[in-house]
């Protein structure tokens, strides 16, 4: 048995889950001739109190000491689970031309938490130029990631508007006339929204554009300034909304959950050859670059904001007294609590102790919302956390083929280089497998049938059309040789909720393909 497989089993045993009043559940890998069988094993030898959970799709083998729950999924069941969150969009071509530097994008999600705490957004700017793509990784619940995914792109779009456009929108609101649409969203049918609180979100967005009008500056923000302003303003609004008096209990509860949970965010804005990426936290964005000789390279566009980044450590040390240097990061976490060192929400790492106590004291039933006041040791000079992003600018070249934005659930499993290699390989396979519809002479149905069988035998029929699905499949199912192990993939997909988080995080991936021809034409014409 390989070292990797052995370590997987040992890790499973160490991280086993204990069922209430029964025993211990862990994963096991059982060699069966030349085939490896992945199973979940329930052992009766350990009796400890813990949370219980139900097991579905189980085929049970009983013995005196162990019960084996074999989670066997067919390839079609695996595909259904992996592809449930697929989203893709191709840019409309007019008169045989595509003036947009974005050719298409493909996205997908796979949950580990229930419900999934990751969110994603994609939209075309209607009052300004460009497209935006965002990935949001929630923690302590999905509430903050949900709110940020709904609101942040609007804040950025408003920050980019001309004074005249802002005045037109404000006048329409004052006169109770329809407001010009700001964004055209590209959403998955299952994407959820906080419909109950949409009106409040709009009112606070209006207060923001009124603030921009009061600045009385023209031409306004640069794109970098707009993204920074939008991130900071939204985080400020999240903090203020939970402090404001609120008679509606549902809206009050949503505001509490949003503020006391958290989310990291990575947003890309693409306008012609201009690419800006704003990042807060440990989501990541990289470019896949194809050189003239056909080789591929990786260009990182973000830094992970956490305890492993020297710039972040120095930044926090500058912002706090020297007496706190040894307590800022404990066990590689901010104040021993949080992995990312930048995030939206998480007011318990931004507010004073007194403000936290005041807000929670005046809130009813916070326990039911899973909100508790916890002040970590050595909490002396808040805020310790910021939502201010780092913004990277890159001028697109024809050799820049695609952009990958993903939550850390992907990057924990695959390196930057591996991701680019997988996307590049997938592109090459798709190009090879485009059906040839033009034949030099007529063909009969038998010939077409034989071609289809050949394609199926080569595995073409099972290829993921969505590149994000392809990446997720490799992230959770790859063996030590970088190949997808169907047994491991099935095991990872059928882990019970309480166990899944030990092996994989929520994963959200968006891949944006660029139109090299449009980019080349830009440089030719200029």
UniProtKB/TrEMBL annotation:
Quote the InterPro entries the UniProt record gives.
PP2C (IPR015655), PP2C_BS (IPR000222), PPM-type-like_dom_sf (IPR036457), PPM-type_phosphatase-like_dom (IPR001932)
Q: One GO CC annotation, please?
A: mitochondrion
Where does the PPM-type phosphatase domain start and stop, copy by copy?
102-514
Q: What keywords are annotated for this sequence in UniProt?
A: Hydrolase, Metal-binding, Protein phosphatase
**What is a single Pfam family found in this protein's UniProt entry?**
PP2C
Q: Which domain of life does this protein belong to?
A: Eukaryota
CDD domains in the record, alphabetically?
PP2Cc (cd00143)
SMART domains in alphabetical order: PP2Cc
**GO terms of molecular function:** [pyruvate dehydrogenase (acetyl-transferring)]-phosphatase activity; metal ion binding
What family classification does the UniProt entry report for this protein? Belongs to the PP2C family.
Q: PANTHER family given for it? A: [PYRUVATE DEHYDROGENASE [ACETYL-TRANSFERRING]]-PHOSPHATASE 2, MITOCHONDRIAL, PROTEIN PHOSPHATASE 2C
Q: What is this protein called?
A: PDP2 phosphatase
Q: Which organism is it from?
A: Rhynochetos jubatus
